[in-house]
Amino acid sequence: MATFPFSRPRGRLVDAFERISGWLQHVPLAEPMDRRNAATLQVLFVFLGTTVPFNWWRHLQADMIAPHLRPFIAADVTAALLCFVCFWLIRRGALRGAIALFVTGQLGSASVGYATTGVMLDQTVQMLALAIAGLILGRRALWVVFLMLLGVVLIGIGSALGSDARTARAIDRASVLLPSFFMSYLVITLVLDRSIAALREALAESKARGTRLENEMRERERAQAQLIEAQKLEATGRLASGVAHDFDNILALMSAFSAERHRVDPSADARTREQALVDALEGVEAASRRGMTLTRQLLTFARPQPAQIETVDVGAALDALTPMLRQTFGPDVRLQVTHAPGPLPIRIDRHQFDLMLLNIASNARDALPDGGRFEVSASAVDGEIELRLRDDGTGMPEAVRRRIFEPFFSTKPAGSGTGLGLAVAHSLVASAGGSIEVDSVPGTGTTFRIRLPRADVIAQPSEVST
After folding, report:
1. Which of 113, 148, 163 is the last residue of a domain?
2. For the residues of 231-280, what is the DSSP string, one character each?
3. Which residue in 333, 397, 418, 429 has the fewest CB atoms around it within 10 Å?
4. Cβ contacts of residue 56 below 8 Å, gap of 6+?
5. Which residues constitute the domain of residue 39?
């Protein structure tokens, strides 16, 4: 690929600009808007603090300054040097103090200038002080500065009256200038006042909307967590019958092993009788271990836990979930769980992932009243992990298929379901950046296809949840 000669320097300039901009905004101010304003104000203060003294120095070097202007020059340079103090105050987090000092310095310099030269036509500094005071300090400060500017103009008019020998002409000139300056300042101040008021109202409304949105999001997350816990309890209840059946088998097995002591031949030698009892006890131990594993899985699944996004290997998760999937179905349903070899990592909450699969399996069980087949498979497809869950049950009509992800929509009899299982599954997949689709043909079966983004960084074996 061709490399243009200016691309690298331009990239360095952009990087340097971003670093400087970040440093200027890195000030101890609570409000984000103040931090953004602080960056611009710091640049302004550095600009004024350097250019104003340099400009007056050039005039002095060229001998272009009349002696009576030296007090004004001294005041103007002092106000410019105060800009560096304002810069330091902003770096310390005292934004309002910096603006108050800046406005005071500029108005003081203007007062000396007006007292020295009379009314000046250049109003740049005055307008700058007026605008900054209003934007940063508020509307009250805006009107205070407006009144102070009128005072500065009166100082200039008084100076002109005192220095003009033709007093009548000076009074006539003052009668023209004072209303003109008053109207100009008043119009500008009114425009700034309304603009600042509208801006602050818009910011307040935006902040209020943001606060309401945050509260709504927290409420939504809390409701989502409660829904998930409700789904866990519902799924646990559905698993209870299968667990009870397994426990009945385990207890029957333990009872059979315990009865071995009655079947030991009394005429056998002591070693034979002892070995028979040892074998029976080992059988009891193996059966009890199986029972403890079963209850541990059920308790772990049902225990309330906060959402925790982690890297989950889908293949290992399916292997661990297979016993609970078997409990969901009766003996007349054939369960098949397969996955591609190698890691299949995704980023998701592990317990919610298990709950989603159990909810889909529960719906498949209801669609297989006379038995059948339920298949779960996982593979990597185009940078994503695809899960397929298929049953060959009764299927569903198109009108039902379109609504299955709606909260509280259920085709089961009243009291048999909440209608939240698939809605929670859809929300979980969407929050993980994936998609879930369903195909169903009445009388043929239903297939769920879930696609989730493959984790960008595959965690180490100890970091992957199984």
Report:
1. 163
2. HHHHHHHHHHHHHHHHHHHHHHHHHHHHTHHHHS-TTS-HHHHHHHHHHH
3. 397
4. 65, 73, 76, 77
5. 7-163
Instruction: Tell me the whole-structure pTM to 2 decimals.
Output: 0.48
What is the count of structural domains for the chain?
2
Mean pLDDT (whole number) for 30-35:
82
Inside any domain, residue 410: yes
Beta strands 333-339 and 372-381: pairing type?
parallel
- Longest alpha-carbon distance in the chain: 148
Q: Is residue 246 part of a domain?
A: no
Considering only CA atoms, give the Rg of the chain: 40
- For helices 314-328 and 350-366, angle between their N-to-C axes, nearest 10 degrees: 40
Instruction: Tell me the per-residue pLDDT of 39-57, one tens digit each, with 9 for 90 and over.
Output: 889 999 999 999 989 988 8
Helices (H), 92-166: 95-117, 124-132, 139-163
pLDDT digits (tens, 9 = 90+) for 378-431: 999 888 999 999 999 999 999 888 888 877 677 766 555 556 678 778 888 988
Single residue among 132, 148, 163 that ends a domain in this structure: 163
